[in-house]
Each structure stands twice: as C-alpha cells, then as structure tokens.
Design brief:
16 helices, two-stranded antiparallel sheet, single chain, 1% strand, 2 strands
Length: 378
C-alpha cells in the first residue's frame, strides 16, 4: 500500500513536466479533484498576489492586456476553430506556429485541447460531458473539470487526424515548456525595459506578474466562461439539443466565442457570429490571415443553416419535457452524423489540412472531414 501511494505520488509529480509519465492516465475514473496534480494551477493563481510587492505601471498593464488578446486569439482561432473543428486549411509550418502560440496560453497542448473539445460536441450537456453545468454544476464546468485525473489524458483516437505530427505530439507531451519559456520571456522583457528606459517604471518581476501571471489567469477564466456561462446565460436562436446560448458580452470577452448557440448549431464554420451585427473579432483576424496567404479555404455558414431549426421565441425558456424530447432527438441526429462522418472519411478522399506525417508508433494523420450538417463535429 505504501509503495503504491509513493509511486502514484511520484507519477503525479513527473506529470507536471512529462504528461506521459507512468503511462496513460485513466479516463474512466471519478470526476473529482486531483489535489497534487492541480498544484501548478493553484500556483499560477497565487502568483498574481505578487502585485502587492511589484506594483503596477502603464506599460506592464498594457503588455498584460496585449498578451491576453493575442493568446485569446490563439485559443479561439487556432486551438478551437483550427485544431478542434478544422474550419480552414494552412501549411504545416503555420500549424506548428499556431500550436506554439496556443501552448503559451497554459491550456495544455493542442491535441489535448482539441480531443476534449471534440468529445464535448459529441455529448454536449449529456451525462458524458465533463464540463456541463447541467450535469456537473457551474463551478465544476467552469474550472473543476481540468483538475480531475479522469480528464488529464489525451484521447488520440479523437484527434487521429493531428496525432501523426510528431511536433504536435511533443508539445502535447511536454506542455509545460512553452509556458515556462513565456514566463522567462516576460521577465526578460521587463528587465530590458528597466535597463533601457527606466522612466517606464517597470521591472522584470513586475512584467512577469502582470504580463504572464495576471494575463494568464484572466485568459484561463475568459476561456472557461464558454464552458460555464455560455451554457447558462444568454439567448438561444437555434434548437441544438443542449443549453448553449449566445451572449454579446462573452463574445467581446472571448473575441467572438460568445455566439455559442450559433456554434453548436453549425460547428464546422470558421465564423461564429453568423450575422453582420454579431461581432466576431476572431473571424475578422482569420480573414486577414487568409488575405496574407497564411490560411485558406475558410468554411462558410451555408445559407440554409442560417434559417434552419430556429426557435420561435428565443427569450422563452422551454419546459423540462420539451428540453428532454429535443435532447433525445438531437442525440439521435448526432449519432447519425458521426456515422456519416466516418463513412465520408472512408469514401470521399477528402484531403488533409496539411501533409500527414508518421510517428515511430505508426500513427498517421488520416484525413477527416468535418460534417456539413448542424450538430456534427469532428
């Protein structure tokens, strides 16, 4: 017993640095906090208290805001719309750049993020959805779920179209490297500014606290609001079989992700603000990337999708019986859509986003097509 406890303790410590230490983490365990594993998560929050000693300066606050916006775009545009939903194409070099920038967000590697998000779409607000406010409660859906060992592993079957790239596997395995490098980079920036322009009133320690830790905590919880708040507050335009909602405020906070009901209605699109008045800053930035030739083939929202499955009175909350009936119908639809996706993958010869590679383990980046029917997701 003592040996087993010691071994589990050492494995948990090793996984802070190498996510594959001790073999694959069990995915069928209870949804409960792994206190040892989430110590780094707690430390990132506690480091924000360092502002008491380092103070603030306009330049430090400005860098924190800028780094928040840049990394929020990395999450929304790259981790979400590219890696999770393959809503556009790019080169392998750009794909790596997207993964590196996304890794600086301290939200694990692109493969882990995409695998969990794809599973969320397959079972949104159903019992198997690990961050559903309906199933797990608000706090767990917001941040508790990432502290559980059951959600620690990466399901490579779900992201087999990406798992064949060794560079993505490396970033997924050693997901702490880029955040550490980002922290040192922020400290170096502050130290350089202090030496070159002391009148700015900043320092290495101040820039580390504001530019990395405070910015990162704000980014984490900004991202988490889509799992929690976007399934509780807001209006519903489409019947999706779950509790997803649209929120203008969350769309501003997350650069467009707040149009969450739109997204669950048609996950394959590169834009989530379906109409011109729905501000989607991530989509505008992606259009600039497209104009520069960095990405291409952005998936549009088909005209028929805009007007299908509309809810007549989005301000009215449906009855419990109506929600249950709609959820059952949507589960059946999603099951049919997943079968259709697998069939299309095998039959259509749809080209992968970038050229696939093979790892030593023989996992290849097999082409997968995101379904064009609403409610289906890769």
């Amino acid at each position: 017993m003592a040996y087993a406890k010691t071994r589990n303790f050492l494995i948990a410590l090793a996984r802070w640095f190498d996510t594959t230490a001790g073999g694959a983490a069990p995915s069928d365990g209870p949804q409960e906090v792994d206190w040892l594993r989430c110590i780094p998560f707690a430390v990132v929050h506690l480091m924000c208290l360092g502002v008491i000693w380092v103070g603030w300066s306009p330049v430090a606050v400005g860098v924190a805001i800028a780094f928040y916006v840049i990394r929020m775009f990395a999450i929304t545009g790259f981790y979400h719309r590219y890696f999770s939903h393959r809503s556009f194409r790019t080169s392998r070099a750009a794909q790596l750049g997207f993964a590196l920038l996304g890794a600086s967000c301290v939200q694990r590697g692109a493969l882990w993020w995409a695998s969990h998000h794809r599973m969320h779409h397959q079972r949104s607000d159903e019992p198997g959805d690990v961050h559903s406010p309906r199933q797990q409660g608000f706090i767990w859906s917001h941040m508790g779920w990432i502290t559980s060992e059951a959600n620690f592993g990466t399901n490579l079957r779900i992201v087999h179209d990406l798992a064949g790239f060794p560079e993505l596997r490396f970033l997924d395995r050693f997901d702490v490297l880029i955040p550490i490098a980002s922290g040192f980079g922020m400290f170096g920036l502050g130290a350089a500014l202090e030496a070159r322009w002391p009148g700015l009133g900043t320092s290495g320690a101040q820039m580390l606290i504001w530019g990395f830790f405070i910015s990162t905590v704000a980014l984490l919880h900004g991202t988490f609001t889509i799992n929690s708040l976007a399934h509780v507050f807001g209006r519903r335009r489409y019947e999706t079989g779950d509790d997803s909602r649209n929120s203008f405020a969350l769309a501003l906070l997350t650069l467009g992700e707040g149009w969450h009901n739109n997204h669950h209605h048609y996950p394959a699109a590169a834009r989530q603000g379906f109409f011109w008045w729905e501000i989607d800053l991530t989509y505008y930035a992606l259009k600039l990337f497209e104009a520069a030739g960095i990405i291409w083939d952005l998936r549009p929202v088909p005209e028929h999708v805009l007007h299908s499955r509309r809810i007549a009175a989005p301000h009215q909350k449906p009855s419990r019986a109506a929600r249950a009936a709609r959820a059952a119908a949507h589960r059946a639809q999603r099951a049919r859509a997943r079968i259709a996706v697998r069939h299309d993958t095998a039959q259509s010869g749809f080209a992968p986003l970038v050229e696939p590679a093979k790892t030593a383990a023989g996992v290849s980046a097999a082409p997968v097509r995101a379904a064009d029917s609403h409610g289906a997701s890769t």
